[in-house]
Amino acid sequence: MEQGTPASSAGVSLKQTNTKWKTVVLVFGTILLAAIVLFFFQHNYFKDPQRLQRLIAKAGPFGPLVFIIFQAIEVIVPILPGGVSGSLGMLCFGTVVGFLYSYIGVIIGSCAAFWLVRKYGVRLLAKLVDPALFNKYYTKLHDSKNFKKLFAILIFLPIAPDDLLCMIAGLTKMKFKTFLIIILLGKPVSSFLYSYILVKGMALI
What we know:
Elements: H1 20-42, H2 49-57, H3 62-76, H4 84-93, H5 95-120, H6 122-128, H7 131-143, H8 147-156, H9 162-171, H10 176-204
Helix pairs in contact: 3-4, 3-5, 4-5, 4-10, 5-9, 5-10, 8-10
C-alpha cells in the first residue's frame, strides 16, 4: 500500500522536547537575516542587484556551490526564516539562474529529509520540527483517503510547510519515485513566486 500508511504506526505523534538548540538556531538566523538585509541596503543591492551579482561572480564556481549546499541544509535545519534564501539566490545570481540554484538545493534537501526520516523515523522528527505543527499536518494527511493527492496539492501551495511535508512523507510507504515526481513538479511554481515577490517587495522599500 503506497498511500498514507505510516511506515511505523498509525498513532504517530510528537511530544514537546528540549528545544534549546532550535531557539539558538532561530535567534542566529534572525540576526543573520538582519545583518544581510542591512548589508544589502547599505550597498544598494536591492535597488541594483547587478552590483551584487558582479561581486558574487568573483567567487567563481564556489559561490553557486556554497549556495546550493546552504539551500539543501535549509530544508532540514531552517537557518533563515520563511524561504528567504531563495530570494537571496535571485539577488545574488539573477532571477532565472538564482532560482535554478535554489531549486537544485531544495530538491537535494527535500530528498535528504525524506530519506533521513524514513531511516530514523520519529526520533529524528522530534529533534527537527515543532511537535504541534507536525501533529496538525500529520493528522490531516494520515486521515486523508488519498494521501498522495493531498501531499501534491500542499507541496504546490506556497503557504504550506513544504519541508515538514517532505519529512512526513518519509514516515509513509510512499515510493521515493512518486515523492520525487511530486517534488520536481510541485516545488518550482510555489518557490519561484514566493522568492520573486519577496525580491520585488524589498526593491520597493
